[in-house]
């Protein structure tokens, strides 16, 4: 069971602690680091990146980044796209991933969103089973990197 998580804005005061949150080495091929996520956000401002540190108590345990309410265009899916979700290696298996998605879904619904898209590599060790267990379903699309596109219908999620 997790403590209640909070999505916290990243500032100069917490940036280094958030960057230090890392997945297990065997997961690094599937999930880019927080630092790489910051680089992607800076590289692709048209993707309308929105990101937050995930805290349990006073400790950063994860990171989440979305494209927030963008107009879909080539190379950018949306309007809401889960770009990055990671939970630190030592915090995995405690329900934080589900708690993060629950909070993201709550925020997206408040913004009027009806669906959330994400993508993942179709391979052993991928987070696909986690996403499917949460309610995401494949759309039948594959992106330019060979990742399958998954969709969560926010209207049917409890």
From TrEMBL:
Residues 5-155 form the N-acetyltransferase domain. This is N-acetyltransferase. InterPro entries: Acyl_CoA_acyltransferase, GNAT_dom, Sper_AcTfrase_N.
């Amino acid at each position: 069971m997790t403590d209640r998580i909070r999505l916290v804005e990243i500032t100069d005061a917490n940036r280094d602690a958030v960057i230090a949150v890392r997945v297990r080495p065997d997961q690094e091929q599937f999930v880019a680091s927080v630092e790489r996520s910051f680089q992607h956000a800076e590289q692709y401002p048209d993707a309308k990146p929105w990101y937050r540190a995930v805290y349990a108590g006073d400790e950063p345990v994860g990171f989440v980044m979305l494209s927030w309410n963008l107009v879909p265009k080539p190379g950018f899916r949306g309007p809401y796209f889960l770009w990055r979700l990671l939970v630190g290696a030592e915090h995995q298996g405690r329900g934080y991933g589900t708690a993060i998605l629950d909070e993201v879904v709550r925020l997206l619904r408040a913004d009027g969103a009806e669906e959330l898209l994400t993508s993942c590599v179709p391979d052993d060790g991928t987070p696909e089973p986690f996403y499917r267990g949460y309610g995401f379903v494949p759309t039948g699309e594959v992106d330019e990197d060979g990742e399958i596109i998954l969709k969560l219908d926010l209207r049917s999620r409890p």
